[in-house]
Amino acid sequence: MDEGKKRMAVLVGCNYPNSRNELHGCINDVLTMKEVLVKRFGFDLSHVQLLTDAPGSVVLPTGANIKKALGHMIDQAEAGDVLFFHYSGHGTRIPSAKPGHPFRQDEAIVPCDFNLITDLDFRQLVNRLPKGASLTILSDSCHSGGLIDREKEQIGPNAATTDNNPKVPSHSPKAIPFESILQHLSSLTNISTSDIGTHFLEFFGSDASLKFRLPPLERDLFESINADEGILLSGCQANETSADMSPHEGGGRSYGAFSNAVQMVLKEHSGQLSNKQLVMMARDVLQAQGFEQQHPCLYCSDQNAGSTFLWQPEC
């Protein structure tokens, strides 16, 4: 890929304040990333959109607002442009809507209004990229492995045996179980059904995920298996959780474990790093910190695995 003409980013941090799902480090994660994008990677502040649920936020990170921001970024893209989406917040897994896959689960992120953005939505965004532009997604959320449907796995599930009782630092998992999401939606729609798609369509209508709005045959049109310019750095495997750290002792700053690991690697290595190098180094950081059951993964084409993270200009 040629050096990008424009560098654009959408950064989303969801702390879900004053709720039973409250997290503490997600907004800090994207504020830190915003600074790094400008100082290290040459992003112009006017091309970086920040969405958080901090008190007083004018535009909240709802499902519709996040998809609108991502869609606008895609619409502005041209060949050679570098696009970036950093999400820090809850993730979840939902039963697959595909016929014949009763035990399969699909990945999704959980915006502040619970209007899920699914792996199919991210696949559709990647498929909309103009030729020669790239979209890098860094998702610091539970069950984020495979968040771009059908993207090729470069660094995947860890096969090593882990301790059944690992000494993991005190943290909160960045996951909301499917049952909790179903219960919440049922309270909004007052419909008695376990079909989550019915609830999404009833309450969110045309703003609901494509996974619930499109017939199965039309969904298949978005599931490209060809090499593309989508790049996913996930905070963990699809069956794992990502950690939200709240080191209140000593007045420490809250953060997401994966986002923090990425920042530590970038701080230690000022030169260019490939996507594969960054993920492997972040894995090492997490393991050294005691996170033996959180394994960041990389999904992208063979070529992009070795490409420079965010196409960092040479110093």
Describe, in plain words, how this protein is organized in 3D.
The protein is an alpha/beta fold. 30% of the residues lie in helices and 18% in strands. The protein has 10 helices and 13 strands. The strands form 3 sheets. It has a 7-stranded mixed β-sheet with strand order 2-1-3-7-10-13-8, with helices on both faces. Strands 4-5-6 form a 3-stranded antiparallel β-sheet. β5 and β6 (117-118) form a beta hairpin. Residues 6-301 form the Peptidase C14 caspase domain. This is METACASPASE-9.
Label this structure with key terms:
315 residues, alpha/beta, Rossmann fold, seven-stranded mixed β-sheet, three-stranded antiparallel β-sheet, 10 helices, 30% helix
Elements, N to C (H/E): EHEHEEEEHEEEHHHHEEEHHEH
Counting structural domains, the number is 1
Instruction: Give the termini separation.
Output: 18 Å
**Major sheet:** 7 strands, mixed
Helical region count?
Answer: 10
Helical residues, percent: 25-40%
What's the gyration radius in Å? 18 Å
Order of strands across the biggest sheet? Answer: 2-1-3-7-10-13-8
Can you name the CATH architecture?
Answer: 3-Layer(aba) Sandwich
* Nearest-integer average pLDDT: 90
* Uncertain segments: none
The CATH topology corresponds to Rossmann fold
**Counted beta strands:** 13
Structural class: alpha/beta
Q: Could you say which overall geometry the principal axes of the C-alpha atoms support?
A: globular
CATH classification, class level: Alpha Beta
Range of strand content: 15-25%
